[in-house]
Design brief:
Radius of gyration: 17 Å
GO molecular function: chloramphenicol O-acetyltransferase activity
Number of strands: 11
Largest sheet: 6 strands, mixed
CATH topology: Chloramphenicol Acetyltransferase
InterPro entries: CAT-like_dom_sf (IPR023213), Cmp_AcTrfase (IPR001707)
Structural class: alpha+beta
Keywords: Transferase
Number of domains: 1
Active site: 188 (proton acceptor)
Shape: globular
Helix content: 25-40%
CATH superfamily: Chloramphenicol acetyltransferase-like domain
Order of helices and strands: EHEHHEEEEEHEEEEH
Protein name: Chloramphenicol acetyltransferase
Length: 211
């Protein structure tokens, strides 16, 4: 479900008009997120840490209206809920796009994700479809081999795109805590640094809920 935003009375109407005219309207940043204990909690639950933090990341994004806002045919819509379109790897080191429906409960999300993981494992290519191309998704990827401090995305400027992009890096220990670099890229006509900060705070809070 989605509702159309009245651009004439929207408090971001000038921001939207200004940044939407850019060849590259996205901006991004990388920040460390503490996940001390979250990895152990995922292990206790018998869930891969990737699916554990991905579920919490999508849940955190759903808390932020700006992360559920999309541009479609020049109009702006606010979705009730957004889901994950994550890149999933294969044994031959290729990857595929996916669509993972979001669930409030971790078990439901993990079941949906495992079905996609199996579908990717037994397929080839990118698996582009109407589901992976849905506007009500977050584009998610993981680079668990790299403790990155910056990240860019391959993008076609001719293709309309307003989906936030989340990337997760290699865990590392520092000052007695476990951290993970998280890259967030969003359309500047829809969100600002303040909203990215809200997302990162919500994500970190959810990773600490096990306590």
């Amino acid at each position: 479900m989605k509702q159309r935003i009245d651009l004439a009375n929207w408090n971001r109407r000038e921001h939207f008009a200004f940044f939407s005219a850019f060849e590259e309207p996205f901006f991004g940043l990388v920040a460390p997120v503490e996940c001390t204990g979250a990895q152990a909690e995922a292990k206790r639950l018998g869930v891969s840490f990737f699916l554990y933090y991905l579920h919490h990341a999508v849940q955190a994004a759903n808390e932020i209206p700006e992360f559920r806002t999309r541009i479609e045919d020049g109009q702006v819509y606010l979705y009730d809920r957004v889901h994950a379109s994550a890149t999933l790897g294969r044994e031959d080191h290729t990857f595929s796009f996916s669509f993972i429906e979001q669930h409030d409960e971790l078990a439901g999300f993990v079941a949906a994700a495992n079905a996609e993981i199996e579908a990717v494992r037994t397929s080839t290519g990118l698996r582009l479809s109407e589901f992976t191309a849905r506007p009500d998704v977050l584009h998610c990827s993981a680079l668990p081999w790299v403790r990155f401090s910056g990240l860019t995305h391959a993008r076609s400027f001719q293709h309309p795109d307003s989906c936030p992009k989340l990337s997760f890096g290699q865990l590392y220990e520092e000052k007695g805590a476990i951290w993970m670099p998280v890259s967030v890229n969003v359309h500047h006509g829809l969100a600002d640094g303040y909203h990215v900060g809200l997302f990162l705070a919500a994500f970190e809070r959810r990773l600490k809920q096990w306590r």
